[in-house]
Design brief:
4 copies of one chain form a homotetramer.
Chain A: E1 6-11, H1 19-32, E2 36-40, H2 45-49, E3 52-54, H3 82-94, E4 99-104, H4 106-115, E5 122-127, H5 143-164, E6 167-172, H6 179-187, E7 192-194, H7 207-217, E8 225-230, H8 237-249, E9 253-257, H9 269-287, E10 293-298, E11 301-306, H10 319-328
Parallel strand pairs in A: 1-2, 1-4, 4-5, 5-10, 6-8, 6-9, 7-8
Antiparallel strand pairs in A: 2-3, 10-11
Helix pairs in contact in A: 1-9, 5-6
């Protein structure tokens, strides 16, 4: 039988749509199991500053559809010191919390692991980030929404690109992985996709970008050309690449950096469902004794995965669609 | 080496968002393999009436984001007779088509199988329906969009339900399965879900519906109550249930039948990507000799599944979330 | 100099997108003028039951984009009795409120007028209803959003109607006026619009509906036919009309009743701006002594209009577009 | 009686949502009057290159909801020479066009006026631009949609800004006017608005920006701060201002340049209705002999305005809301 009576929960790192749905699921599930929940504000800072409040089912009513996070998020440099980690653990002990749930990316999970040596309770991670760069789960909470937000923007850009017969470079988020760029690129029918998995470009190294443009120009009826690129793939980003490209081919290329729009918005159904499932599963697994594990979903089944392996970067983007796009999208 | 030189494609049955993305992928992939594509209009009727046209990459430009189907869809009663099936096969032979791709649900696949005895070429199905009631694939093309369309509507109903502190019954599509109702119900935070998998209700059999409402009314702060129900779960549908419920509990309940809105709209990313992947995969598998198979996706891998098994109804909705919802959503 | 020190605000009748934006504007404007604001819950019921709370700028942060109303809304039958009106006025006196702002439709304004004989303070109305059937303002708060919500739904129905080449009847809200039906009908390119201003239809009186359908059928390439109708224009509504029409012309017609979706959702820019402008103007005019007036906007200018004239129904829908639609939409 | 038998239509300059709705209205209205319509591609370039096609009602079916323009748009430097203008007029004569309708901004109207000396027919302008910087009409076609597109993005940024308690600068389009920035800024509840009407900022001139930020920081509960700014208001745009501001106040400020997203997307109802009304009105007025006039809408009434006055920049943004925002938004 479980001895879990009180747990803490926080959201950390870049916020992602669905974080609120996950908080809600944790609170509702815990309430059904007669477990109390304490929410910390501003990520791990709330642990260090002691900023917290009790979360009842009433507090999470009608937040499933809200973007952002009612607990606020933040980076927390203080946690990188032993002092910070000890203070955080101290707060958990003082509040008599049997466990802490951390909703965030692999950086946030490292934060949880930093606390572990000083904390007697259990630590569980929940993958909340738009970037999908967390091992141990097929998708992270927020990823599906970020794709649809990007798509919505690119569909609009297609309208104007098509009206004006222009070349557009759309830069999407994704830190060191191309998940969002590939998915949004395929889904918007991008003529070209640039992502880390295909290799970073050096300044002035434009051949691989220009060749498919020139190929497409030969084809009758091609009225617009959209390049979807992940951030950090060209020095200076899409703005610099657009300028260099314009000069090299003599056609005006325009850059559009989507930026933080991708983090916000009401989560799509897939994110709300994933967040709900993982939140419930995490509470159940806590009661079974899980510790230093992340609750993820692989092949539609919830499961546990060691926190320390979540950042290894072993999850790859699907090569099938990437290959397909390179073969056919320019026809 | 493949001997596929010319193939036909059609969309059949209830239309679904992503059908155009699938047609596009078939045409682009075929073009890259130097295979010609003929599109038939109005489902199998186009085969019987000989209504068709060549589809080039140019024709499928910028349709990936469009709802509906550029080939139109329809039911085709004529195909249920041997004469109809022979005529359809005759058209395929006359146009020298080595294969036919049918985008639709299991009813449409039965249409394809009806042609098989009279047709020398290959037949492949692609699962295009919002209902997700096709075995052999985790999701059908259109399902993800239908969930998000329903969600978007229910989130709006939540606003007004909450402002007025009312009980609303929202009736969603889904024929004989509760996929849409369950997914949308979980994702909107519905207080109650009624779907075939939990049993159909008889006229006046309201106890199981009323009990959780009364339980919720006891709880402070519950300002609205939304019941998401699949169609065909109560005689007369949600309108009748709302009337009977209003009378039984003395609180005004309102019904909202979402209806055909759920079939339309620009497909979400997940549907565009699934449609693109399966369209490409189907063409490749045709070249490998596939026949009387459906191209589906299971655990993120494209694969083949016998057409004749697609309608067995063995795919079940996830019991985990259904159980969870019944335990906690009313807290 | 104004002697206004404390005012009350409530939302009444059917809720409308933008009511929150209006509450926010009232609170922010009042704060800038050092006026305190008390919000009543559930419309006039909050006055009778004494359910109220102080509203500070902090409470209205980030509500400009929310549908519904943070003050809740309701009908209030008790106000129709002298006792009810006296009780309401008593609450206003007891709380030392110098004025009451009522956000709602003309029915709600009648509620305000019922209190007037017993209340020493000022009464001001703000037109909040999706129906736009309030004289003294070109548009009501919520009307623009309701049109766009209806459009979004009808665009989706167009997708499926077009895929299936079907006739659809879409029933929109609007009580006794055709504002929403006409605007949404024009904006979606409806083939036919049925609204009270063109005359209500009697049971079985289908000629005027059928004639343009038959005319359109003669025209090549017409792949779908959408009739947008206001509620209460045919006995039994769109469902009955669809059934009668199907029988009369032998083509399946489908009905779609949009219902309460039209009341919810995040307000569009036009409604947020109108709500903000009128909320600010109402507070300023209170300070100038306005009483028993509605703050409205005519020709882009805010102005006052007597509350007692708001329900005369003298505002007409623009005949220009209605005539145009009847002349050309079927070509 | 009108002698108009054949007219031309083109879209020119930056594309705007609703241009298709306007083309549709022109074609449908003309058809009802038995006037033929010829559409030119790529703005005035189509006149010079002779790229055109007949537009029948069939061609404009279901385009009312599409962004972009089916006629494509472009700038046309060739028109700035007498040779170019003569060639354009020659094409109009050769095709026996009695009039030309130009949908675009005041730059496009200057193009029309450049042709006038060499053309015997009538010239009419229709205000299609998101910027709303055209005199003679309260709103231009595309303006309402651009506001809502910006709002949709800023609401998402609010989610993440609020989660992270950050300062964001959102840069909107608008060339030399602040219409979009003011409207979107008011409607999103921006804490600060920077637009040309309030004066352009010089490099390093940050006092007027910083003061309200510092004021807001003093206020409890302010969890995010959004500055909406028009383009061209600070050297280097929002990116430079964000960097300078970050350095000056020691708080990280982030810039988001919405860019061309604002031009695309399905037009909102207001733009579809305005485009429909003005398109119909323009054809009717052509038949009455109008020449060198723009069809606009002032106080809900369609009317004519001299083309040569459309670019005088006399239309001002509403000072009421701008003043209000400066007084209260930071409370």
């Amino acid at each position: 039988m479980s001895t879990i009576k009180r747990i803490g929960v926080l959201t950390s790192g870049g916020d992602a749509p669905g974080m609120n749905a996950c908080i809600r699921s944790v609170v509702l599930t815990a309430a059904a199991k007669e477990i109390e929940v304490v929410g910390f504000s501003h990520g791990f800072n709330g642990l260090i500053d002691g900023e917290h409040r009790t979360l009842l089912p009433y507090h999470v009513q009608h937040i499933i559809q809200l973007g952002g996070t009612i607990l606020k998020s933040a980076r927390c440099p203080a946690l990188h010191t032993e002092d910070g980690a000890r203070t955080a653990a101290g707060t958990l002990h003082q509040l008599q919390l049997d466990a802490l749930l951390v909703i965030g990316g692999d950086g946030s999970f490292r934060g949880a692991m930093a606390i572990a040596p000083f904390y007697k309770g259990q630590l569980i991670g929940l993958p909340g980030t738009i970037d999908n760069d967390v091992d141990g789960t097929d998708a992270t909470i927020g990823y599906a929404t970020a794709i649809d937000t990007a798509l919505d923007a690119i569909d609009k850009i297609r309208d104007t690109a098509d009206a004006f017969e222009r070349i557009f470079l759309v830069e999407l988020m994704g830190r060191h992985s191309g998940f969002i760029a590939l998915s949004a690129g395929i889904a918007c029918g991008a003529e070209q996709i640039i992502c880390p998995e295909l290799g970073l470009l050096k300044k002035g190294q434009l051949d691989s970008v220009i060749r498919p443009i020139q190929h497409a120009q030969l084809i009758k009826g091609k009225s617009s050309y959209i390049i979807v690129m992940a951030e950090h793939c060209y020095p200076g980003g899409s703005t610099a690449l657009a300028a260099d490209l314009s000069e090299a081919i003599g056609i005006e290329c325009r850059a559009c950096v989507l930026g933080h729009i991708q983090r916000g918005g009401s989560p799509v159904g897939a994110d709300r469902i994933l967040a709900t499932k993982l939140g419930a599963y995490a509470v159940e697994q806590l009661m079974q004794g899980a510790h230093l594990m992340m609750a993820g979903e692989v092949n539609h089944q919830a499961g546990l995965f060691p926190l320390e392996l979540t950042g290894e970067g072993k999850k790859n983007i699907d090569p099938y669609l990437l290959n397909w796009q390179q073969q056919v999208a320019n026809d």
